Amino acid sequence: MAVGEVWGIGRRLQAHLLDMGIKTAWDLAKADPRLLRKRFSVVVEKTARELLGVACLEMEPQAPAKREICCSRSFGHRVHALDELREAVATYATRAGEKLRQQQSLCSLLHVGIRTGLFNTNEERVSLSVTCHLPYPTDDTRLLVQSAIAGLDQIYKAGPAYAKASVMLMDLCQRHEYTPDLFAPTQPAGTDQLMQTMDQINQRWGKGTIRPGRVPTKSEWQMQRQLLSPAFTTRFDQLWTVRAGN
Predict the structure, then answer these.
(1) Higher pLDDT, residue 191 or 64
(2) pTM for the model
(3) 8 Cβ contact partners less than 8 Å away, ≥ 6 residues apart
(4) What is the reported pLDDT for 19?
């Protein structure tokens, strides 16, 4: 097999290896790994060692939990009204809350941001953001939406044409890592069951079947998706239909 077909060996790197007389994967495996590391990088050295059967990269059975979760989208059109921004922020906070629960984490800080376009010189450039402290570590969508809207109301400035909003969950901790404080408020016991039921219904009957009242089913500010690539491998309604002729 040509050395350029080895995973991680690009065209530029292949040219340098050919100058060294390394034309095939077997040549790369026989090369001095210390020389490869000195001339190129530790990645090339590990690749050569892996070709000889020496395990250098450990497989992770599960990806580590994210330390931050961000949900951010550009609008389909410029947004001026505060009500539309509230809908967008509530939608992003709801989506971020779903991701938070998927990795069994709790959130203590929520960051909300809005900004105008970056490339239109005729528009006023404004970027506003605020970090909100939650009353206790939580994965409750209702509290996340409430805090996100409160943060938006705090930073909103009338006039500019906003092009994007974002909601970021920060200061995350895993459920098994969090120890409640005896003298501080904690998430109510019924919240866990409520959020679990909501996620189960949405997984069974489709995303958005149950959602906060602030989240619209469809709105004009949502990102335009006319040119979205088809999802042939994940959606039954987009599978190709092939009809054989007689």
Answers:
(1) 191
(2) 0.69
(3) 43, 44, 47
(4) 85
Rounded to 10 degrees, the C-alpha dihedral 133/63/188/210 comes to 100
In this model, does residue 6 exceed pLDDT 80?
A: yes
The Cα 70–Cα 93 span in angstroms is 9
DSSP the chain: -BGGGSTT--HHHHHHHHHTT--BHHHHHHS-HHHHHHHT-HHHHHHHHHHTT---SPPPSSPPPPS-EEEEEEEEEEE--HHHHHHHHHHHHHHHHHHHHHTTEEEEEEEEEEEE-SS-TTSPP-EEEEEEEEEEEE--HHHHHHHHHHHHHHH--SSS-EEEEEEEEEEEEEGGG----TTS----HHHHHHHHHHHHHHHHH-TTSS--TTS-SS-TTSPP-TTPPP-TTT-GGG--------
pLDDT band at 224 (very low <50, low <70, confident <90, very high): low
Q: What is the pLDDT of residue 225?
A: 64
Backbone angles phi, psi at 21, to 5 degrees: 85, 10
